[in-house]
């Protein structure tokens, strides 16, 4: 069964950067849309954007262009979310999630989440 | 602009049934959605895809107690024989071109 395995929790200072990884099995990596979702403490799910695992083209939701960058390393079947110039309000759990249809379906598999805490 | 509306909370007794609602905004009443469950302290889990005609396909291992239905812009998640582990937040999700949207979530309390 396909799984998305994310990197562990991070504690960062304001102004620093963080890179969250999301690894899946090699045989499925280029066949779906890989999405990123943010959940701030006590809040709902917020879609951040997605990356096309075939072309590497990222698409960012409103409010997530600029400091947020999606990337891929197809050699290790891993997607990355990098956040730069961290602010306290970036404190959240970040999930990767798969749309199996490559852009036209809901998210059928979720990573376990990566907690990012930004604090001085 | 795609918008999904959910009631913030719902409650039902252990062993009873409950029906949660997700409403698509005007102009999008024929859209499919997905339902996700998030138990306390855990990540989201995919429950099902629900089409506008009420047909649905559930994720792996989702019990028969969970089902979906549709009426116009309304999408429903029904849970029967409620168990304590069903106490969770439930989110609906839909998608357009290059865009996915979540509803605000419904917190289900099992009494």
Uncertain spans of chain A: none
The general outline of chain B is globular
Q: What order do the helices and strands of chain B follow? A: EEEEEEEEEEE
Tell the overall outline of chain A.
globular
Average predicted confidence as pLDDT of chain B: 96
Radius of gyration of chain B equals 13 Å
Helix count of chain B equals 0
Which structural class do the helices and strands of chain B define? mainly beta
Total strands of chain A: the figure is 11
Strand content of chain B: over 45%
Nearest-integer average pLDDT of chain A: 93
Strand content of chain A: over 45%
Share in helix of chain B: under 10%
Kindly, what is the distance between the CA atoms of the first and last residues of chain A, rounded to a whole number of angstroms? Answer: 40 Å
Main beta sheet of chain B: strand number and arrangement? Answer: 7 strands, mixed
Largest interface: A-B, 25 and 25 residues
Task: Give a nutshell description of this structure.
The complex is a heterodimer of chains A (120) and B (111). Chain A is mainly β and 120 residues long.
Walkthrough of the structure:
The complex is a heterodimer of chains A (120) and B (111). Chain A is mainly β. Chain A has no helices and 11 strands. Chain A has strands at residues 5-6, 10-12, 18-23, 33-39, 46-52, 58-60, 68-73, 78-83, 92-99, 109-110, 114-118. In chain A, strands 2, 4, 5, 6, 9, 10 and 11 form a 7-stranded mixed sheet that branches. In chain A, strands 1-3-8-7 form a 4-stranded antiparallel sheet, with no helix packed on it. The mean pLDDT of chain A is 93. Chain B is an all-beta fold and 111 residues long. Chain B is built from no helices and 11 strands. Chain B is globular. Chain B starts with a strand and ends with a strand. The model of chain B has no long low-confidence stretch (mean pLDDT 96).
């Amino acid at each position: 069964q396909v799984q998305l395995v994310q990197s562990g929790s991070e504690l960062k200072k304001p102004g620093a950067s963080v890179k969250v990884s999301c690894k899946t099995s090699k045989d499925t990596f280029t066949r779906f849309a890989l999405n990123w979702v943010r959940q701030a403490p006590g809040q709902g799910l917020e879609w951040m954007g997605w990356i096309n695992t075939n072309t590497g083209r990222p698409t960012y939701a409103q409010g997530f262009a600029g400091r947020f960058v999606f990337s891929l390393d197809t050699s290790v079947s891993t997607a990355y979310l990098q956040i730069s110039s961290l602010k306290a309000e970036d404190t959240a759990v970040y999930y990767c999630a798969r749309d199996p249809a490559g852009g036209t379906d809901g998210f059928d598999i979720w990573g376990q989440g990566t907690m990012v805490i930004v604090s001085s | 602009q795609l918008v999904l509306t959910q009631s913030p909370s719902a409650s039902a007794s252990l062993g009873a049934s409950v029906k949660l609602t997700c409403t698509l905004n005007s102009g999008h009443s024929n859209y499919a959605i997905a339902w996700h469950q998030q138990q306390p302290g855990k990540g989201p889990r995919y429950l099902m895809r629900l089409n506008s005609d009420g047909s649905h396909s559930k994720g792996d291992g989702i019990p028969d107690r969970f089902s979906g239905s549709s009426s116009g812009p309304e999408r429903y998640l029904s849970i029967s024989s409620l168990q304590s582990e069903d106490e969770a937040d439930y989110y609906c999700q839909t998608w357009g071109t290059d865009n996915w949207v979540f509803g605000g979530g419904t917190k289900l309390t099992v009494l």
